[in-house]
Write a structure and sequence with these properties.
The complex is a heterodimer.
Chain A: E1 4-9, E2 30-31, E3 35-36, H1 38-47, E4 52-56, H2 62-68, E5 82-86, H3 101-106, H4 108-113, E6 118-122, E7 126-128, H5 132-141, E8 146-152, E9 164-168, E10 174-179, E11 188-197, H6 198-210, H7 216-221, E12 230-234, E13 239-241, H8 245-254, H9 258-266, E14 281-283, E15 288-294, E16 299-300, E17 303-309, E18 314-315, E19 320-322, E20 325-326, E21 331-332, E22 337-339, E23 341-343, E24 348-349, E25 354-356, E26 363-365
Chain B: E1 6-11, E2 32-33, E3 37-38, H1 39-49, E4 54-58, H2 63-70, E5 84-88, H3 103-108, H4 111-116, E6 121-126, E7 129-131, H5 135-144, E8 149-155, E9 165-169, E10 175-180, E11 189-198, H6 199-210, H7 219-229, E12 234-238, E13 243-245, H8 249-258, E14 285-287, E15 292-294, E16 296-298, E17 303-304, E18 307-309, E19 312-313, E20 318-319, E21 324-326, E22 329-330, E23 335-336, E24 341-343, E25 345-347, E26 352-353, E27 358-359, E28 365-366, E29 371-372, E30 377-379, E31 384-385, E32 390-391
Parallel strand pairs in B: 1-4, 1-6, 4-5, 8-12, 14-17, 15-18, 17-20, 18-21, 19-22, 20-23, 21-24, 22-25, 23-26, 24-27, 25-30, 26-31, 27-32
Antiparallel strand pairs in B: 2-3, 6-11, 7-13, 8-11, 9-10, 28-29
Classes of the chains: A alpha/beta, B alpha/beta.
Chain lengths: ~375, ~400
C-alpha cells in the first residue's frame, strides 16, 4: 500500500444530519461514544498502510482541523507525506455535488506532485472497519481501471435512496451504476470508495473540466463504463450507512450489540481518535447502568439504560437516561428524565425535566442548549 | 543548548521489591495505577503542569516497559525541541562503567546531562509516589528563602512518623535536623522525596560523596546529612494535599481504593491539573444488561457482564456473566470467565481467570484453614488461572472449590 494515497471527500450537498450537521461538517459529527465520523475511514486507511491522506474539506472545517490536528493520533504527522487539508477555493462555492470534480481540480497540484501511483478515494458516511489491502490486490489482479467497493445489502431496513448502486456481471465487472435511484434494481450498494491509478484520476479531472462536466461518478465513471474496466469489490464485513438522523440513531444503538461493537471497533484494526486524557468513568452509589456504551471521564450517579454516553458526561442522582445518545460534556441533572433523545455536545438538562422523543423520530437537542 | 533555569531529575530505577510479582518484569514507576495510569504519570504530569519541560528519567531495573512507555514524552507534552524528556540509563565510560549505586550516584553519573542546560536549580523527584503538586510554587519558596536546598515535607499521622524520613525544623522552616525512620520522632514532617538544590552547590557535594568509598551514595542517608552538617541553608517546604508512597501491596491497594470515595482526596477530574498517560485507543466500555456496577472506576475497552463493587477495572478487561468483583484492582486486558468471585485482590496484566475461580476473600477469618486472612491477594500478570481454582494470600492451601 506504499504506492497508494488516500483522498477523503467531505463535499456534501445537503445537511442531511439536520441539527447535528448545521454547524459542523458530517465528518466531525460525534459517533460511538468517543469518535467523530471521519475517524473510521481515516483509521482504516492508516491501518491498511496508507501514509498520505488529503482531505477535501468544505466550509466550517474548524471543528475538523481542531480534531485532526497534524494527524498525530493516526500516526500521520510525518516529515514526508502525512495529512493534508485541501480547503475549497473561495470563488467556487455554488452548486456543490458530492462528487464534484471542480474541488479535485482545485487541488490538481497536490494530486499531481505526490509520489504515489494509486489513489483511494472515499467519503465519510459509510462507517466500517475494512482493510483496503484486499481490495487493492483485487484491483491489480483484475487489471481494473477503477475498482468500486460495494456491499451486498440483503434486507434494507434503512432508507438508502441517497446511495449509489452498482450492477455487476460474474467476474465482478460493473455494467451499470445508478445514482440515488428512486427504486433500486440492484442490491449492491456502492460504499463510495474508489481505487484507481492517479494518472487516470488526473485524466478524468482534466477531461471533465474541459467539457464543463463536474460529477466524478456521473460524468467520470458512468459515461466511461464502456471504455474503462470498472470492477466491483464485494466487502463482507459490517457497515453502517449514516444518511439521516434516524439512521444515525439506529446505528448508534446497534453498537449496544457486542458482536457489532467488536466488528466495528476491532475487526481489522483499532479506530483512532483524538485523545482527551480523561480519567476512568466513575460509577457512584446509586448508579444503575444496563446495556450501555459509556466513554471515559463520566460521573454516573443515576440510571442509564440502552444508551450511548460520550466522554465527560455527568449524570445526577435519580436521573434516568433511556434509549438515548448523550454527547460529550452533557449534564443530566438530578431526577431529570430523557428518553429517545440525541443530546448534542454540552447540553444541560436541569433538575426534574422530562424530555421524550420517539423511536423512529428521536428528539435532537442542539449543541449547548440548556433546558 | 539554551540555558534552563531548572532541570528535573526523576529517579525511576527502583525495583520496588516489596510489590512482589507486580514488579517481576516492570520497574516500580511503570506499575499500573488508578484505572488508566502508571505510577510515573503523576510525576511526569506534575512536571508538565508546573511548567518544567526538561526532565531526565533515570532508569535501571527492568527498563523495557518504562522506556517504551515514556518514548519521547509526547503523551505528557514533553517532546520539546530544547529539553523535553531524556531517558538516562547507566552506561559504559572510557574507564569502564557501573550501575547506579544509589540515588546520589545516579545524578553524579549524569552531571554531564545536567550541565548541558547549565541550570541554576536542580529538582530531584522520585517516580513512585502518587500526588499532584505544583513544583513551581516550591521553586518560588526556594528562591524566597535564598535556600541552598529545599525539601518538600508533608504532615503524616504521628503514629506513622517513625516510618518516614523526618525533618525537624525551626520556626522559619529552616531544617535543623534530619532523622531517617526515628523510633521517637520529634516532628511529623515527612520528606516526600522531592528536593530542589542549587546545582552549583549540589555538584560539589556529589563529588565529595563519590570520593567516600563507605558512602551508600544516597540523598537521604548521605547528601542531606552532609549538607546539614556543613551548615548549608536548608528549608522544609510544607505541602498540603494528597500524597502516598505506594511501595507496598497494602499501600498500592489502599491508594487505589482511595479513588473510589464520592469526592476523593485526589481529584482525577480536575481539568486544570490533568494527569496524562498513554491512551490505548479502545472503544467505550460496554455495560451489559446483566451487569451491576457501583462505587467503581471503569475504563475504555471493558466489557462487563458481571457485578463490580468498590473496584477498579483497567482498559480492556472482560468480565463474564455471574462473576462478582469486590474491593479489587483488575489491571489491563485481564479476562475473567463466568461465575468467578474476586475479593480484595490485585490481578496483574493480561492474566486469564477461567470459570468458577475464587480469588481472595473478604472474610476476616478463613473457615477452611482457621487463619486470619484479611490480606490482599495478588495474582501475577500473564498467567492462566485454570477453572475452579481458589487462590488466597494467607491460606495455607490452594483449596479446590466445590
Amino acid at each position: 500500500m506504499k504506492d497508494v494515497m488516500g483522498i477523503i471527500n467531505l463535499m456534501e450537498n445537503e445537511d442531511y444530519l439536520k441539527e447535528l450537521s448545521y454547524h459542523r461538517p458530517v465528518a466531525a459529527v460525534p459517533f460511538g461514544g468517543r469518535y467523530r465520523m471521519i475517524d473510521f475511514v481515516l483509521s482504516n486507511m492508516v491501518n491498511s498502510g496508507i501514509r498520505n491522506v488529503g482531505i477535501l474539506v468544505q466550509h466550517q472545517y474548524r471543528a475538523l482541523m481542531d480534531h485532526l490536528g497534524r494527524g498525530k493520533e493516526w500516526d500521520l504527522d510525518r516529515k514526508r507525506d502525512g495529512l493534508f487539508f485541501l480547503p475549497p477555493s473561495q470563488y467556487n462555492n455554488q452548486g456543490i455535488y458530492h462528487w464534484d470534480l471542480r474541488h479535485f481540480y482545485n487541488h490538481l497540484d497536490y494530486i499531481n506532485y505526490s509520489r504515489h501511483k494509486y489513489v483511494l478515494i472515499s467519503g465519510v458516511n459509510v462507517l466500517c472497519n475494512i482493510n483496503y489491502q484486499e481490495a487493492f490486490k483485487f484491483h491489480q489482479a483484475m487489471q481494473a481501471d477503477i475498482t468500486i467497493i460495494y456491499k451486498d445489502i440483503e434486507n434494507q431496513s434503512i432508507n438508502l435512496t441517497q446511495s449509489h448502486f452498482v450492477d455487476t456481471v460474474e467476474d465482478g465487472r460493473i455494467i451499470g451504476i445508478e445514482i440515488s435511484p428512486a427504486k433500486t434494481t440492484s442490491n449492491k450498494m456502492s460504499m463510495e470508495m474508489f481505487i484507481m491509478k492517479k494518472s487516470l484520476l488526473v485524466d478524468l479531472i482534466n477531461s471533465c473540466h474541459s467539457r464543463g462536466e463536474c460529477d466524478m461518478v456521473r460524468d467520470g465513471f458512468i459515461k466511461n463504463l464502456h471504455r474503462l474496466r470498472v470492477f466491483g469489490f464485494p466487502y463482507q464485513g459490517y457497515l453502517a450507512t449514516i444518511n439521516s438522523v434516524p439512521s444515525y440513531y439506529k446505528h448508534s444503538m446497534d453498537l449496544l450489540k457486542p458482536e457489532i461493537w467488536r466488528k466495528l471497533f476491532y475487526d481489522q484494526g483499532k479506530i483512532f481518535t483524538k485523545t482527551k486524557d480523561g480519567p476512568p468513568t466513575k460509577y457512584n452509589e446509586g448508579a444503575k447502568v444496563s446495556n450501555a456504551l459509556v466513554a471515559n471521564d463520566c460521573i454516573i450517579n443515576g440510571i442509564v439504560e440502552n444508551s450511548v454516553v460520550f466522554r465527560g458526561v455527568k449524570v445526577g442522582k435519580g436521573a434516568h437516561i433511556k434509549d438515548s445518545i448523550i454527547m460529550q460534556k452533557c449534564e443530566i441533572q438530578e431526577n431529570a428524565t430523557v428518553e429517545h433523545v440525541i443530546a448534542d455536545k454540552g447540553v444541560i438538562i436541569t433538575k426534574d425535566k422530562h424530555l421524550k422523543g420517539e423511536e423512529h423520530y428521536p428528539l435532537v437537542i442542539k449543541k449547548r442548549t440548556v433546558i | 543548548m539554551q540555558r534552563k533555569e531548572c532541570v528535573a531529575m526523576l529517579l525511576a530505577g527502583g525495583q520496588g521489591s516489596r510489590l512482589g510479582v507486580l514488579t517481576k518484569k516492570l520497574a516500580k514507576p511503570a506499575v499500573p495505577f488508578g484505572g488508566r495510569y502508571r505510577i510515573i504519570d503523576f510525576t511526569l504530569s506534575n512536571c508538565n503542569n508546573s511548567g518544567f519541560d526538561t526532565v531526565g528519567v533515570l532508569t535501571q531495573y527492568q527498563p523495557l516497559a518504562l522506556n517504551t512507555y515514556i518514548g519521547i514524552g509526547s503523551h505528557w507534552d514533553l517532546d520539546r525541541k530544547n529539553g523535553g524528556v531524556t531517558v538516562l540509563p547507566p552506561f559504559v565510560k572510557e574507564m569502564g562503567g557501573e550501575w547506579y549505586k544509589g540515588t546520589a550516584n545516579a545524578i553524579y553519573q549524569n552531571i554531564e546531562y545536567v550541565d548541558r542546560y547549565n541550570p541554576k536549580y536542580l529538582l530531584v523527584l522520585s517516580g513512585d509516589h502518587i500526588y499532584k503538586m505544583d513544583y513551581s510554587l516550591m521553586l518560588d519558596f526556594h528562591k524566597e528563602k535564598q535556600a541552598d536546598a529545599t525539601i518538600a515535607v508533608i504532615e503524616v499521622p504521628w503514629q506513622e512518623a517513625s516510618g518516614f524520613g523526618i525533618m525537624n525544623t525551626a520556626k522559619d522552616a529552616r531544617i535543623i535536623e534530619f532523622e531517617e525512620k526515628p523510633t521517637v520522632p520529634k516532628s511529623n514532617l515527612a520528606s516526600m522525596g522531592v528536593y530542589i538544590f542549587n546545582w552549583g552547590i549540589l555538584k560539589g557535594y556529589l563529588e565529595k560523596d563519590e570520593n567516600n568509598p563507605r558512602s551508600s551514595n544516597d540523598f537521604g542517608k548521605n547528601i542531606i546529612p552532609m549538607m546539614l552538617q556543613a551548615g548549608q541553608r536548608m528549608f522544609a517546604y510544607p505541602f498540603k494535599g494528597y500524597w502516598r508512597d505506594v511501595g507496598t501491596i497494602e499501600s498500592l491497594w489502599q491508594a487505589n481504593m482511595d479513588l473510589l470515595s464520592e469526592s476523593p482526596l485526589l481529584n482525577l477530574n480536575d481539568q486544570e491539573w490533568r494527569i496524562y498517560s498513554v491512551t490505548p485507543h479502545h472503544p467505550p466500555q460496554y455495560i451489559a444488561a446483566s451487569a451491576d456496577v457501583n462505587c467503581s472506576l471503569i475504563n475504555e475497552g471493558c466489557m462487563v457482564y458481571g457485578s463490580v463493587y468498590n473496584s477498579i477495572l483497567f482498559p480492556g478487561v472482560y468480565l463474564g456473566k455471574g462473576s462478582t468483583i469486590r474491593d479489587s484492582v483488575i489491571m489491563p486486558n485481564v479476562r475473567i470467565g463466568e461465575n468467578v468471585t474476586i475479593e480484595k485482590a490485585i490481578v496483574g496484566v493480561d492474566t486469564q481467570i477461567e470459570d468458577q475461580c475464587k480469588i481472595g476473600c473478604l472474610d476476616e477469618f478463613c473457615q477452611k484453614c482457621n487463619e486470619l486472612c484479611s490480606k490482599i491477594t495478588v495474582v501475577e500478570g500473564n498467567i492462566v488461572v485454570s477453572g475452579g481454582q481458589a487462590l488466597k494470600k494467607s491460606c495455607k492451601f490452594d483449596c479446590k472449590v466445590g
